Amino acid sequence: MNFVTFFVVWFNTALTLPLGASIEDYKYEPYAILYIDGQRYDDPNMYYEYEVNWTKFSHVNVNRVHSYRVDYRIWLPSIGRYHDHIITFTIIDDKAPVITSSMDTRVPVGQKTVDLLSTFRYEDNYDPKNDLKVDIIGQSAINLNVVGTYPITYRVTDLSGNMSEVNRNVIVYDSTSPTIEQKKEIILSPFTRFDVHQFFTFKDNYDKVVHIDLDDDQVNYQKLGSYKATLTASDLSNNTTSVVIDIKIVDNIAPYIRLKDSRMRVNLNYVLTDKDLLDYIVEVGDNYDQLNAGHVKLKNYVDTKKAGIYDVIYELTDSSDNTFTVTLKVEVGDFVAPVVIGPEVITLEVFSKNVHLIDYFSINDGVDSLADLDVKFIGKYDIERLGDYRLELQVTDKNKNQTTLFLKILVVDTTAPVVKQLEEIKIVDFKKTELNKYFHLSDNYDNKIEITIDDSLVDYNKVGTYPIIVKAVDLSGNEGIFETNVLVIDNGTPNIILTTDLVYVDVFGDTLVLRNYIKEITDNYDIIAISEVDIKSDINYNTIGRYTVTYSVKDSSELIGQSQLTVIVQDRIKPVIIASNSEIKHKKGKTFNIREYLRATDNYDGDITGNIKLAAGAFDVNTAGTYELLYTVTDASGNTGEVLVNLHVTASRINVMTLIPMVLIGLLAGYIGYGKYKQYKQKKEDQE
């Protein structure tokens, strides 16, 4: 054979085997392809030779992680050459270490250190234990001074990077009970609350807060006597301490008398009785006994015919001999005050001038003239500030008798606010909107003005001009009214909603009805029919590719809306492998080329026989027998076809006459496939 250049391309030259694998399962995976003058050439007589250049399969130790070399040689009789290549067999360990024992670790709070490996056991199928790496993830987060459960992860990694993990917990616990220390004897008054912290101190080795439980079911806090109770302190780890305590209920609190006042005024010659004095009592009580005003004793001598100050002593004693006394000062004299008549409420307009409050009142006294009376207003009001002001009018005679009248000054505002429109009101989205921003409000007094807008006549869904009424109310309820118009305008583009934004079609398939992909058309104002949509497309149904369809529509306001649909023309049909015969007979020792028996065609790619690959099964042309082989072929779109054949390797001679039908069938299949490819190529050229 005459040629200029040749080269050989080897495949599957670096093989990876797990520990213990059989090299026989991998030794036939490497293969080579011959190229002559840049074109692939299938030499029917080529064959492989293994273990050349003094390399041996027996040197490959599948029980040791390592890389080994075995040289392969392909003989090419047609050109009288051979080619050597190094095949690498790499033995790997792909099994993770095994964790044989692990458990949670319990540590008392406050312990200085903890050994997390004391109960952890592990091993590996290949590496010695000393070569395995153990990591404890989460160990840094463990705080031996804080009670809690801390999650950790044990991770064991061998020299090949295989890793095993197990999750466990480190439990820091507290087992020490709290302490209870009594500070003083427990003596309580009846009906009082027992505060344990007033009499006891509670401490714990860990917890800052200790739960206190008092079992005082046998204690009657409403009855004098001595009682026993049980006091229990518990920490957050449920460690408890209990003590029995003595509680004494003792009444050492005196009763009480509450009078209307510490002083009483009595006019000259008034007949003062004990009933008058007892009626001056507002309340009598005791923490334990049921007492009333009838138990009170009076000690008094008051001469109502002589001006002066007299003492009246009230005395009350309970059943425990606790005594309470209170003194009432009784003053006898002339205490008739002047008479003042006038309004309780005076209303003034804000910013009013020349206001005289005395003009609103009539003042008289039985003894002193108006000129001799001391008249004064206590309190202030601000005529320039709205408000509710409280004043006190005091009128005093020469004997210091005084009449006091409490009155209210109301400073009010009765002027309505003013409404000013800032700009024309235009609604462009057919939605009801906040209209306050279009107005400026002002008032003679208030800075805060409430605005209400009556837009009940506005149809926000229809273009037009509509009247509205604006009302402004200040804090005093004064109302200003302003009338104006709202303009409803359309400026929203229509929206084309498609049933999908992506469609897949088969190459050489039917033409799409693009209008059917329009689901609906929405517009903020107009009703637009699907038939009004303009569709632009550049789809080539005979060429695989990605195409864009543009939908456009215009509303009554000349506003244009668009949407796009992506169409992907694809090939989903599997290629076909045509076998001249599913039962192939082959002479032992002769080079086998499957492409002599199989041809592959595709609806789009044409003849793809060169892509045929052995997918499953193996054979040895040097060993007689029947081999079941699965061949596949994949087109440019990833579609895969397959065929199953039986290869019969026989030692006997093959009758040439028996091959003639198979050869004819193979030639016919190749001719048919080539004819389809020419038809497809011509069709594609016509389209271009």
Walk me through the topology.
Blueprint: E1 6-11, E2 14-18, E3 31-36, E4 39-41, E5 47-52, E6 66-76, E7 81-92, E8 98-101, E9 105-108, E10 121-123, E11 133-137, E12 148-157, E13 163-173, E14 179-182, E15 187-188, H1 196-199, E16 200-203, E17 211-215, E18 225-234, E19 240-249, E20 256-259, E21 263-267, H2 274-279, E22 281-285, E23 297-300, E24 308-317, E25 323-333, E26 339-341, E27 345-349, E28 362-364, E29 374-378, E30 387-396, E31 402-412, E32 418-421, E33 425-427, E34 439-442, E35 450-454, E36 464-473, E37 479-488, E38 495-498, E39 502-506, E40 518-522, E41 534-537, E42 545-554, E43 560-570, E44 576-579, E45 583-587, E46 598-602, E47 606-607, E48 613-616, E49 625-634, E50 640-650, H3 656-687
Written overview of the protein:
- With 688 residues, the protein is mainly beta.
- Helix content is 6%, strand content 45%.
- It starts with 5 loop residues before the first strand and ends with a helix.
